[in-house]
Design a protein that fits this description.
single chain; alpha/beta; seven-stranded parallel β-sheet; six-stranded mixed β-sheet
Length: 933
C-alpha cells in the first residue's frame, strides 16, 4: 500500500488518517514536517471536523483508485451523482496552466474588462504578484476582489491578509463581503483587544483567523507582532496604499519585506506608486520579484511589465467602458475672498517682516528658511491655524524672532470669526449649493490644518442653521474606530450628516461619492498630487452626479503679497488641466511624492521663481519615471479577457444550491433548516457547521441576522435584488449591513454545500448511473501537481471501449452527449455491478497510460514559463555587477545576487510537476435500456 511519504495528494481526494476518512481541502509541501494537508472529516465520528495533518507526523493513506467501490445511484433523476460530480469539479483547483478567468461575472458588480485586466496579469506570472497602480477612482478594491476570488477558486486563496490604512478598514471589509462574499476579520484596535481576550494566551492570532484585515500602523509594531508574522505563511497578502512602504529602513518597509517573504501571492495597490526615484521604486518592485531589476539605477519598462499595471480615466479601454457609470467631472472653480482690514494687516506683517527675512538678527539657514512659508500657509488656512503655529514657535523663540512672533500673536488674537472673509464665503457657497436645514445636499470641506477643521466645525453649523449631529469632523487625532464610523455615516443616505470637515487623512483610498458630489477646498495643499487625491474622493467610479469642486482663494490688495493667487489658484488650474488632458497629474509634477513636490515648490519660491517657472522647469527635466510608465496599460486592448474552460453539470450556481439543499435534507429542507423561498430570495436557519464557517464575518453582521440563538441567513442570486438591498443599507440612518447577501460562487454557504455533497458517498465510493451511452464509461479524474501541492495538470477523462479497445474522451463532451442532466429519469432498476467492477482496474490503467503518454507535452507547457524565468535569472546575475562600484561593493552585490538567484531557482524547482498522477474514479455511466436497444 502507498505510504504517506511517497503518495500524491490533491484537493478533492480522500485519505484515511487514524482509521477515519477525510476529504482533502488543500495541500502544501516543503514544511519541516513533510506535506501539510488540510482536510474535513467525512466518516461518522469526525464528520465536518476541520483538521490539519502532516505526512511526517501522521500515517496518511490515500485511497487507491483500483479499489473504488461502485454503488448504484437510486436518487431521483440521478441527483446524487450529478451533485457529486459537480462538487468534485468545484472543489478541484484549476491547474496553473489555466490562465482564463473562471468567475469574472459571478459577483455584485459591473463586469468591466478593464477591471478584469489586472486578474489576467496576476494569473499570467509564476506567482500572482503585481502592483495595481490605476489612478484614483478606477476601482482598485474591485480589482483586488476579483483577483482574490480567482485565487480562491484555484485553491490558492485560503489564507488572506489585507493590510491597509486605518481609515479604509471598514470600507475595504464591506466591499469584499457585499460584492464578492469574501469575509475578512477586521483587526482594528477593538478587534485586537477582543482577540487577546478570546484566544489562548500566546496563541498566534494569524493562525486563529485565516482571513483578516488590519491597519499597517497596527501591524508594523515588530515588538508585538513580528514573531507571529515570522511564524505565519499566507496564500495572499494585499497591501493597500503601498507607496507608504517605499522608504527603506522604516517600520512600514520592514513590515512589507517580512510579509513578502511569507506569501505566495502579493498584491500592492497605490494610485501614487512611486516618488519619482528609480532606485526607491526598484526596491518596491523587488518585493514582487527580487530578480526583476538588476541595476536599480538603470532599468526599462519591459523589465517590470509583468508586475505593473496603470490606467487613467482617459485610457482607451477605461474610457470606452465606464459610460454613464461615472459622471464627467465639473470645473474646479475659484471662489475669491477679499481680505478684510485685519487680514490685510497680517499680510503686511508676513510680507514686510517674515518673507523679507527681517524676523531675526541671526543668519537663517537650512529648514529655518522655510518657516516664513509655514506661517504663510497657516494664515492662508485660517487665523486659528496661524495662531497655533505662532504659539508653538514662541515657546522656543528669543530676541527679534520672539518680538516678531508676539506681533503676529497680537494680530491673530484680535481677529474674530466675522473678520474671516473665507469663513463668510464658505457659508455663502454652502448655502448656494443647498446645504442647510431641511436639505439632503451634502458637502465635504477639506483643510490641511487641524485648528482650522475644528474651528469650522464649531462655527459653520450654527451659521447654516444645522444641528450639531449634522456635522462630522475627521483628522489624524480621531480614534481609529471613530474614524471608520464617521466615514460610514457620511456615506449613508439615511444619516443626518450633511457636512464633513476633514483633513488629508481622508484623501487616500476613502469613498465619499455615494451621497456627495460637492467638495470645497477651504485651503489648497501646495501639491498637485494631494489636490488630485482629495478630488478623487468624490470623482470616482460609481459617481452618478457631476463632481463639483470649489476652492476658497484669499486675495490681498497688495501686489507683492503672496496670497492664494500666488500658488493655490494656479495649482487648482494646473490640476484641472492635467486631469482633463492626461488623466493624472503625475506627468505635470515631475515628482511623485506630495511632500517632495511641496518642498521643491517652496525652495523655488525662496529662490524668486514663480509657480509657473517652478513647474515648467520641473517638466523640462528628463522624467525617467514617465519614460518607464507613461504607456503601461494605456494602449487600446482589442482582445477580451480569456475565460477558463471549466466543465459543469448545472446551468447555474442557483441550480446547484437548490438541488444540494434538497439532496442533503431529503427533499425537505424546510423542515430541517426552516428554508423559505420567495421568488429570488432564500432564507434559512444556518446549521452549526455552517455557522462555524462564518466566524470570519463581523460580529455586527452576525448580530443583525440572529433570531434568538439561531442565525437566519438571507441570500439571493438576483443581482438586482442584492444591489437594491445594498442601496437600502446605504439609505439607513446608522451603519448597517445589507439585509440580503449576494450568493457568489465563493460564498461560505456554497463552499459548505460542496463539502456536504462530497461526503454523501461512503469511503471511496463512486456512483453508477444509467445514461445515453452504448458502452460502460468510466469518469476518471487525473491530476499532476508540483512540489507545492498545486495542480499543474487536471484532466477529466471518460474511458470507454473496455476491455479490447480503450478510448479516452473529454468528460464534459461525454456527459453532454449522454444527456446527463436534470431531465434524466432514474427507474431504479436492478443492476449487476460485477461486470463493471471487473473492468474498473482496466479503466484506471487506461487513464494512467493516457496521462503518462501526454505528460511530456504537459510538462513542456508548464516548464516553458519556468525556463523563461530561469533565463531571466541568468541575465539578472550577469547584470548585477557594476564596473563603477568599488570592489568591496561589487563583492557584496554579487553575494546578494547569488542568494536571490538561489532562492528563485528553489522556487522554480518547487513549481515543476513532480511525482505520479493522482487518479480518482468519479462515476460509471452504463447504457440505459433505450441506449442498449
Amino acid at each position: 500500500m502507498t505510504t504517506s511519504q511517497d503518495a500524491t495528494f490533491a484537493p478533492g481526494s480522500r485519505i484515511v488518517v487514524r482509521d477515519e476518512e477525510w476529504l482533502v481541502r488543500g495541500v502544501k509541501t516543503g514544511t519541516a514536517d513533510g506535506i501539510m494537508i488540510k482536510a474535513v472529516g467525512v466518516s461518522e465520528f469526525v464528520q465536518d471536523v476541520e483538521a490539519t495533518f502532516f505526512t511526517g507526523l501522521e500515517g496518511i493513506t490515500p485511497l487507491v483508485p483500483e479499489q473504488t467501490e461502485l454503488v448504484v445511484d437510486t436518487s431521483s433523476r440521478f441527483r446524487q451523482s450529478r451533485l457529486f460530480l459537480e462538487a468534485v469539479l468545484r472543489r478541484t483547483p484549476l491547474p496553473r496552466t489555466e490562465r482564463g478567468l473562471a468567475l469574472a461575472d459571478r459577483f455584485l458588480l459591473d463586469p468591466l474588462t478593464y477591471q478584469q485586466r489586472p486578474v489576467e496579469l496576476a494569473l499570467s506570472g509564476l506567482r500572482p504578484r503585481i502592483l495595481l497602480a490605476d489612478v484614483v477612482g478606477l476601482g482598485k478594491t474591485l480589482e483586488i476582489g476579483l483577483i482574490l476570488a480567482e485565487l480562491i477558486r484555484r485553491g490558492r486563496g485560503d489564507r488572506i491578509l489585507v493590510v491597509s490604512p486605518q481609515q479604509v478598514l471598514e470600507q475595504f471589509q464591506r466591499e469584499l463581503w457585499t460584492r464578492f462574499a469574501i469575509p475578512l476579520v477586521r483587526l482594528d484596535s477593538t478587534g485586537i483587544q477582543r482577540i487577546q481576550q478570546e484566544i489562548p494566551a500566546g496563541r498566534n492570532p494569524f493562525t486563529y483567523f485565516k482571513r483578516a484585515i488590519i491597519s499597517v500602523d497596527t501591524l508594523k509594531d515588530a515588538a508585538q507582532f513580528g514573531h507571529h508574522l515570522d511564524a505565519t505563511t499566507w496564500d495572499v497578502v494585499v497591501i493597500d496604499e503601498s507607496h507608504n512602504l517605499i522608504n527603506k529602513g522604516t517600520k512600514r518597509n520592514e513590515l512589507a519585506r517580512r510579509l513578502a517573504a511569507k506569501t505566495d501571492a502579493l498584491l500592492l495597490a497605490s494610485a501614487t506608486p512611486h516618488n519619482g526615484d528609480k532606485e526607491s521604486f526598484a526596491q518596491l518592485i523587488s518585493l514582487l520579484d527580487p530578480a526583476a531589476i538588476a541595476n536599480e539605477k538603470q532599468y526599462e519598462a519591459k523589465d517590470i511589465a509583468h508586475l505593473y499595471l496603470r490606467r487613467t480615466k482617459i485610457s482607451p479601454e477605461v474610457r470606452d467602458q465606464i459610460g454613464d457609470r461615472w459622471a464627467d467631472r465639473g470645473p474646479s472653480r475659484a471662489v475669491y475672498c477679499t481680505a478684510g482690514p485685519i487680514e490685510e494687516q497680517i499680510f503686511d506683517e508676513l510680507t514686510d517682516v517674515w518673507l523679507a527675512g527681517k524676523w531675526t538678527d541671526e543668519a537663517v539657514t537650512g529648514q529655518h528658511r522655510l518657516f516664513p512659508y509655514t506661517l504663510l500657509k497657516s494664515f492662508l488656512s485660517s487665523h486659528r491655524a496661524l495662531h497655533e503655529t505662532v504659539t508653538n514657535r514662541r515657546k522656543k523663540a528669543t530676541g527679534a524672532e520672539r518680538a516678531a512672533l508676539d506681533r503676529l500673536a497680537e494680530l491673530t488674537s484680535a481677529m474674530t470669526d466675522h473678520d474671516s472673509s473665507k469663513l463668510v464665503k464658505l457659508v455663502e457657497e454652502l448655502k448656494k449649493i443647498g446645504v442647510g436645514r431641511g436639505s439632503d445636499t451634502r458637502a465635504v470641506v477639506f483643510s490641511e490644518r487641524v485648528p482650522t477643521i475644528k474651528w469650522l466645525a464649531e462655527t459653520v453649523p450654527g451659521m447654516l442653521g444645522l444641528k450639531p449631529n449634522a456635522v462630522r469632523v475627521l483628522h489624524g487625532g480621531v480614534a481609529d474606530q471613530d474614524e471608520q464610523r464617521i466615514l460610514q455615516e457620511f456615506e449613508l443616505a439615511g444619516s443626518e450628516v450633511r457636512l464633513l470637515f476633514t483633513g488629508d487623512v481622508a484623501s487616500e483610498g476613502v469613498n465619499l461619492h455615494q451621497q456627495c458630489h460637492h467638495l470645497i477646498h477651504y485651503d489648497i495643499p501646495w501639491s498637485l498630487i494631494r489636490i488630485e487625491q482629495r478630488n478623487g474622493r468624490i470623482d470616482r467610479y460609481g459617481q452618478k452626479h457631476q463632481p463639483q469642486f470649489r476652492a476658497l482663494i484669499l486675495t490681498s490688495e497688495r501686489d507683492d503679497a503672496k496670497d492664494d493667487r500666488t500658488v493655490s489658484e494656479k495649482l487648482l488650474d494646473r490640476e484641472a488641466v492635467a486631469h482633463r488632458s492626461l488623466g493624472s497629474v503625475e506627468a505635470a509634477t515631475g515628482l511623485y511624492d506630495a511632500k517632495a513636490e511641496e518642498d521643491r515648490l517652496v525652495r523655488d519660491l525662496l529662490a524668486g521663481k514663480s509657480i509657473d517657472e517652478s513647474y515648467e522647469a520641473a517638466h523640462a527635466e528628463i522624467d525617467v519615471m514617465a519614460d518607464l510608465f507613461g504607456d503601461v496599460g494605456t494602449a487600446p486592448v482589442m482582445t477580451d479577457v480569456a475565460v477558463a474552460r471549466v466543465p459543469k453539470l448545472f446551468d447555474s450556481t442557483e441550480d446547484f444550491v437548490d438541488a444540494a439543499l434538497r439532496e442533503i435534507y431529503e427533499d425537505r429542507p424546510e423542515d430541517h433548516i426552516d428554508l423559505r423561498r420567495e421568488d429570488e430570495l432564500l432564507t434559512f436557519l444556518a446549521p452549526d457547521d455552517l455557522v462555524h464557517r462564518l466566524t470570519d464575518l463581523p460580529r455586527s453582521y452576525l448580530r443583525a441576522h440572529r433570531e434568538g440563538e439561531d442565525l437566519r441567513l438571507k441570500v439571493t442570486f438576483d443581482r438586482t435584488l442584492a444591489q437594491r438591498k445594498l442601496d437600502q443599507a446605504r439609505q439607513s440612518k446608522t451603519p448597517m449591513w445589507p439585509e440580503i447577501a449576494f450568493l457568489s460562487d465563493v460564498h461560505p454557504m456554497v463552499d459548505w454545500l460542496v463539502d456536504k455533497v462530497l461526503i454523501r458517498l461512503g469511503r471511496q465510493q463512486a456512483p453508477v448511473l444509467t445514461a445515453d451511452v452504448t458502452k460502460p464509461t468510466y469518469l476518471i479524474q487525473g491530476v499532476y501537481a508540483n512540489r507545492l501541492g498545486q495542480p499543474t495538470v487536471v484532466q477529466w477523462m471518460a474511458v470507454s471501449g473496455l476491455p479490447a479497445a480503450p478510448e479516452i474522451r473529454p468528460m464534459d463532451e461525454v456527459l453532454r452527449e449522454a444527456n446527463v442532466g436534470p431531465a434524466m429519469v432514474n427507474r431504479a432498476e436492478a443492476l449487476a455491478l460485477d461486470p463493471f467492477r471487473q473492468l474498473l482496474p482496466q479503466a484506471v490503467a487506461a487513464a494512467r497510460r493516457h496521462l503518462e503518454a501526454e505528460r511530456a507535452e504537459w510538462d513542456a507547457a508548464n516548464a516553458e514559463p519556468l525556463e523563461h524565468y530561469r533565463r531571466r535569472l541568468q541575465t539578472f546575475e550577469q547584470a548585477s555587477i557594476f564596473d563603477e562600484l568599488p570592489a568591496s561593493h561589487r563583492a557584496k552585490r554579487r553575494e546578494r545576487a547569488r542568494n536571490t538567484v538561489a532562492e528563485q531557482h528553489d522556487l522554480l524547482d518547487r513549481l515543476e510537476t513532480a511525482g505520479d498522477p493522482l487518479l480518482r474514479v468519479l462515476a460509471v455511466l452504463v447504457p440505459s435500456p433505450e441506449s442498449a436497444a
